[in-house]
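Quick board copy: two proteins, each given as sequence then tokens.
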Amino acid sequence: MRIIAQSLWICLMLGVATATTHPVRAEDRNPAPAPSDGSIVKDHLRRARSAREKGRWTEAHAAYKAAFEAIDSTSLTERESAEIAGELGLCELKLRKFRDAAEHLAWSLERRKALSPEQQKRFADGLAKAVPFVATLYLSVDPPDAEVLVDGKLIGRPRRTYTLFFEPGVHMVRARAPGREEGFQTLDAQAATEPRMTIQLPRAAVSSTGEAELGAPAKKAATDAQATRTTTQAPAPSASWPGTVRVGGIAVATATAAAGAIFLLRANVVHGDLREGDVRRRAQGWTSSTCREPSAPAACADIHGQIKERNLLATLGKASLATSAVFGLATAASFFTEIALFGTEPAAGGLRAAPVATTEQAGLILWGSW
């Protein structure tokens, strides 16, 4: 009986284990493959074409841009890559993103041999429509392996010549290469222009090790020359006060300009009150000679007071703006007359600044040594 009971217990446990074990499914043995990068790009293209056919340009632009950004990580053919870039550029043209449109359409047309004649025509027509709204810079760089940065952003792979598109505004073009000094140039981009620029990077100065190998006579000559420059470039007597005077001039110009604006605004308000009151009084039968009659109404005194107040405020406003202009011009002129009056020159070293402005942002780029 004991053997039979043990056997029944073992069978019961095996039944429970079998019931609680999940069957192995075919998909568990062979899991579905993850979508490849190529299928993701094709999915972007399907969404982009569908949105484009329905005129939803923002949605089409987002899908084409996602497909274009995935080009480097996929095995797309040159024809597919050129087509994606061209269609992306046409979407950006519809959305009035002229610089981006010109950049992507030009990128596509650089591979025109992979495009059909119909695509070449469409993309070339789109580029012709975008170019009048941007500046097209033809840039040459020496050495050709130098990196080029525009407004601090690295562009493309190094090469000798570039065709770059800029929104109207001031931009900074910078080039750098190992063993060379960096080069900077400012571009004042104007729409529908085609400026040319060349940046040559001279070799970097001799290192400290090389300087140690110079002969004693050369060292002495360099030291004497430095001492001469130090003697001849002594600070001018004006060096201690121009900054303070200019700050004061800017403060006075700003304050008087603000006061002038307030006076003129107040004069405009009073003038508006006079005009509204004149309309009401004419509706009541007043004429232009009512206040000049011997029996003029008592309200005429208030009208005359308002007229005097308006004229006084207008005079003060104009005088304040004129004073602001005088101080502003004097402050600006001080920067140009300091060299002529005191014989000083801008320092060769230190920091340099260049304004940068686009349709979306504005600021300063600073560079130099300190």
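And the next:
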Amino acid sequence: MDPETSSGSLPYGPAAGRPVPEAEPELVQSWRSQGGELVELLSEVRRRFGGIAAFRLGPARTVLVTDPQAVQHILARHPERYVKRSHRARVLIGDGLLAATGTAWQRQRRVLQSQFTGTGMRRYEHRITEAARTTAGRWGGYARTGQSLDVGREMRRFALDAIWRSLTGHPLDDGTERELTAVNAVAAALPTLPTDVTDARDAVAADLARIDAVAQHAIEAARSGPAGPDGPGLLHVLIDAATERPEYTDRLIRDELVTLLAAGHETTATTLTWLYLLLDRHPAAREQALAAGGEGSAQRRQAIQALVHETLRLYPSAWILPRQATADDILAGYTVEAGTDILICPYLTHRDPELWPGPEHFDPQRFRAPDGRPAHPGAYFPFGIGPRACLGLQFALRESTVLLEHLLPVHTLAFHSTPTKAVYGLTVRPDGPTPATLGPPRT
């Protein structure tokens, strides 16, 4: 039986648990009348009722989960009981790995998993480093001329270059970069698209056509032409899989390519943008990281990684993880019925004052001190945990660290203006541009 689609009562666990506490309808009505963000409702539900609590946006009940024990139960210990029903980005990524379920997901993950292990990552180290050097060279030009830059755009440009090199073996060219802005356009539109799939596709048809054209050209080039200067990439792994696995049609290869493009650059770019905004408010954190060790030292690298992890604590790559219970279960002592919609919220778990003292404060030392962060694995999960944790975790951390090793020692940023709030879509991103000027390069 497919564990992602099984249903019925489960033959394990205690006979009964406590009812999940539920927010009163007036709370939801008040939130709606004020036109609040979903995160504001979730935050208030968590504050009033704890780490497992229910609310209703319609006739069906949704259970919010922020308690670490419950998070681990759902994502790591019993993922077969709590499955993805439908991914919000399916209009963009089709049947790619993020949206796949059941045996299809298992097959697709096996094809890609070896590429993101420690051994597999060594294939892409040089490509990430070259993308970082390209960015560092561009920033050197900005510093010499005094030209302004937009930090968010620069971070997207770097991350897109890194994943494009890893996919194709070629550096990102200006034309491809222009066309792939359509990926960000579709991703930004997803929260407001019609619920009907056909209507949703029609609303972003022009951008999807641009993405499809880039993907088709890349696939044809990988099949017929010589490998890029960096050798074969992830796209070649997908094409090779098609020789043995009939399910790897051109459409599925396109879907996996777009999934890797979207997931492989937007989350990293957003994290790096937030990090620079946080360093603008906490400049001492940069100096502490650089003072931890000399260039290329393990100590400095660990300190820079702590900057990244603390940024991910405040702004996790996936701020909300929807699931649906396939069967009755007992979740941390509470009864959850089959069919219940679940919302796991890393954003709120990471800001729980019972887990993280001073949770709103940016403090990278949490990730350097032996007892600086909670020990429970369900207390910090910016990329998820368990079998469906983000496959590209090590890739994202590596590219972020490498870029910062190139930029932080040399450049400081002076922002002209900074966004005043966040947008809660597929990721948590700054609401607005991030224009800045670089200070004189440090030597």
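Board note added afterward: The first helix runs from residue 25 to 33.
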